[in-house]
Structures are given as structure tokens and as C-alpha cells.
Design goal:
The protein is mainly beta. It folds into two domains: 36-170, Immunoglobulin-like, CATH 2.60.40.680; 174-265, Immunoglobulin-like (Sandwich), CATH 2.60.40.4130. It has helices at 6-32, 270-277; strands at residues 36-41, 46-49, 53-61, 68-74, 80-82, 88-89, 97-104, 109-115, 126-135, 139-151, 160-163, 165-170, 174-182, 192-197, 200-207, 213-218, 225-230, 237-242, 248-257. Strands 1, 3, 5, 6, 9 and 11 form a six-stranded mixed sheet that branches. The longest helix has 27 residues, at 6-32.
Length: 290
Amino acid sequence: MKKPNSKVWVTLLVLTFSLIVVMLAGSAAAEDEAIATLALDPAGPVVMSVGMSSDMDITLTDATNVYGAQLALSFDPNIIQVSGGQLTPGTCPQPDFLQSNVANNATGVINYVVSQLNPTAPCTGGVVATITFECVAEGQSAVTFTNSIISDPNATAIPHTPVGSSVVCEQAAFQVTGTVALQAWPDPSGVQVWLFDSFGHVDGPVEVGSDGTFTLVANDAAETYRVVAEYDRYLSAEATDITGTNGTTVNLGLTTLRAGDINGDGVINILDLTALGGNFNKTSPQVWAP
């Protein structure tokens, strides 16, 4: 049997090397074409106390030419609920045509269908929508995509990987309640109330209704808390050194916010008085003028 000469060996080596280069180039190109990711953010588990709520974004990354989305998600309605029974639309896709936006808190099913309309340009990723979950009982709930279609303007599905999340609901240590009134005004609706621990913000703001009542959740009986109530053009009110035991309710009673902080700097002084004095005895409507 005749052995191949050196030229044949060289040709074979060149062809083999060329094939390897082509294969590597194809692999690199495939890696460069990243598959889009449809994910819940935070990735979880999101830990909350019963009675508290938190936002979870549906995000789309590494995508191009996005024009519409059809999403179905599931959650355990015995543990968490979707506040308001709807999602807050995002910006990718723009909610030019919102075909469905329903969160069924009885079955634990979310359906969200949205499309952009001409002349809106395709988007490349961002927040699709935001879900506000509220803990209603102690336990853990997975939040998963049961169906998802991302479409371009030509009705072509965009490949993507869906990534779910989870929510853990813990029993709150104790609740803080109270009532807020406004001086010289009968309806306190819109007053905002916050709960803070020694590390910063914990719960709120809660907007009180016409009855002025509020409920805040403290999740650590070993902590000391403070409550702050605020309303525009009124001095804020603060309750400090609030402590409680597990399963109890601490009622702060009634506080009245004082009117007169016209410039909103947290103090009523001559600047507020002169602003009021300069307009004393004037009536509405005034002449349209600077």
C-alpha cells in the first residue's frame, strides 16, 4: 500500500485546521447571539411580614426588536395577593394596547397581554410590568411563568428564558395603629405615615383615609421604632420609643398636624407669617397675573 506523500499530509492538515476555525467561529457567533431573559426582579426569595407589600418587576434583558408580550404567571393566593388585582404596565413593550391585565387573587393566576402600536418603535428590554404582592398569611409562595410569548413587529416569537422568583411571608411581630387629624381642615385624606426602626425605613408610606386611621407593621419585637406623619404645608408629627411584643397592637392614639408651614421648611416663622400677611383679606379668584 502506497503511503501518502508530504503534500497530501499538508493538504489534510490545512483542511482540518480550517474546519476547526469555522466550527469555533460558529460557536462564538452563537454565544454572541444571547438569548433574551424574562425574569422576576428581585430574584427571591423576597422576605416580608404578613400585612406588608413589595414590588416585583417583570424584566426583559438581552432582547431586540420587541413589540408585544403575552404572559401568564402563577402564585399561591393563600400566601400572597396582588394589590389592586392588576399589574402596573412598564415601558417594554409600551402599553399602547393593553389587551389583558388581570390578577385573579382567588385562583392565583396572572394574565398580562400588551402590544405596541405604530408608530411606536420596537424596544430592546426593560421593565415589562410591575407586580405589587401583599403577604396575607405565613408561608412561602413560588411565582412562576406558566406561559410567555415575546413577539417582534412581524409576529415572530423571540426566543427567551423565563426565570421565576418566590415570596416568603413571616408573621409580623406587632402592629402600630393610630389616627391623624389636620388642624383647621376636616378631612385628613392623603396624610402619609411611615414606620422606622434604628436602621431606617421599615413600612410605609401609608396614606390615611377620611377617618385618619392607619396600620403599620413592625417585624421585630426586639427593635425600637418611631412613627412619622407628614402632610404638605403642615408640620410633621413624630412618635418615638415605640416597642411591642409578638402578636400585639400598639395604638398611638390621635395626633393633630399643625397648619402654617407655608414654605415647607419644617418650621413656622416670620417667613410663613409674611407670606400669609401679604395675602391677608384677599379672596379667590385672583386676577391671572405673576
